[in-house]
Amino acid sequence: MLVSMNAQRLYELVHYFAKEKNKHILVIDTSTWMALGDTKKATVKTYYEDFLPVDEIGEIFSERYTFYEFDSQTSAVDIANEWFPLSTDLEDQDYFIECYVINPSGAMPYGNKVPAKPE
């Protein structure tokens, strides 16, 4: 018989962190970028040089997940908007880097992945 060992997902861990620190956490997920070939990775990374601060490019593209903490929801959402376009704003989805904000209550007030419209 299998007994659940209270598995946790990324959301639960980030929510716990946000709650404990009373911060708003911007989560950046580069897993789709990491699955690209080297040539496409370089092209996508170059594209983001127009949006990301120079010091953050290496931080964001060196790991699958990157987390930034902010004192306010407005600051977290503003940075997410500045750095990462909405999925619907990109013609080539290989350029899409998902990000979202989790606040101390566990709500997700922002995410840049827009669901596809039903046909």
Task: Tell me what the structure shows.
This protein is α+β, with helices and mostly antiparallel strands. It has one domain (21-110). Helices cover 39% and strands 16% of the residues. The chain has five helices and four strands. The protein has a four-stranded antiparallel sheet. The mean pLDDT is 94.
Topology:
Elements: H1 10-21, E1 24-29, H2 31-34, H3 38-48, H4 54-61, E2 65-70, H5 73-83, E3 98-102, E4 110-111
Antiparallel strand pairs: 1-2, 1-3, 3-4
Strand pairing plus helix content: what structural class?
alpha+beta
Oligomer: single chain
Average pLDDT metric? 94
Order of helices and strands: HEHHHEHEE
The strand order across the widest sheet is 2-1-3-4
Question: What separation lies between the terminal Cα atoms?
Answer: 44 Å
- Domain count, please report it: 1
List descriptors.
single chain; 119 residues; alpha+beta; 4-stranded antiparallel sheet; 5 helices; 4 strands; 39% helix; globular
Brief account:
With 119 residues, this protein is α+β, with helices and mostly antiparallel strands. It is 39% helix and 16% strand.
